[in-house]
Prior knowledge:
This protein is an alpha+beta fold.
Amino acid sequence: MPLGLRKKKNKSKESSNLVENEEVSGHAGVGKSAVNGGGLPAPPANMRPKLVFHTQLAHGSPTGRIEGFTNVKELYGKIAEAFNLHPDEILFCTLNTHKIDMEKLLGGQIGLEDFIFAHIKGLKKEVEVYKAEEALGLTITDNGAGYAFIKRIKEGSVVDRVKVICVGDHVECINGKNIVGMRHFEVARMLKELPKDQSFTIKLVESMKAFEMLEPRSRGGGGGGKSSGDGKIGTGRETLRLRSKGPATPSEFEEKAVKKVDDLLESYMGIRDTELAATMVEVGRDKKNPDEFAMALDKALGDFAFPDEFVFDVWGAIGDAKQGRF
Length: 326
């Protein structure tokens, strides 16, 4: 069986996706089938090996086994099915740790040995914040399924002084406006455009915690402790990559360029979005100069109104990746 799982009879249909105290013994039997290599066409769906992943709810649960997903929304659906939840209850997932560790946040790829922890909705809170500075000190990301949440809090910033706001909190409402369904860059823009020297109200939902997880909040770094695994993603041949339209295997150029553009997005806009970065790389890969790239970017992503300096830096990053200068 994939992932070296032992067969275990279940007592009822309801618990067919849950495994009590099952040992995880690696990925024996999987081989190198996670990503199709060598430029060969993908095999028919009925001939592809089943990739089985282990999952738990981060606040504590039996172990579940999930398979048959190609993007984040499908993954959340499979997790919800395993634990008899609604997919909307899932805020985000971390890999190899139950802690709210943004360095272990599930992004666009899952290693075959990675253990998935799903963080679900917990306590709701409403906070009034006085915006004493232009920058609030937040980095916003989203789960790819309609929930934006706080990825980092800058030390000494406006938000850092509001101790009830924590890394991992889902931003549900700003000044009475429900923002569920918005992408993180839209939420970041709303927060940035709030007037200085005025108060605003923000409604947040934190993830459910077990008693042993109640600890001082993290600013988004190491999560306050060691993870339950080494967190290695592995090579491309043992990694499942997730995109909104299904799995794909990016080239070395794409991986390097997307990473750099994602870093620029965080630097300029306070967001991280590998899908948006990948779109920008795709738009710019065959453009001959920055002006041509800027026009193509405006056509493809006109709603963003990126600053000229950012566009120029993105163009430079794509060029560096083409030349292998990273």
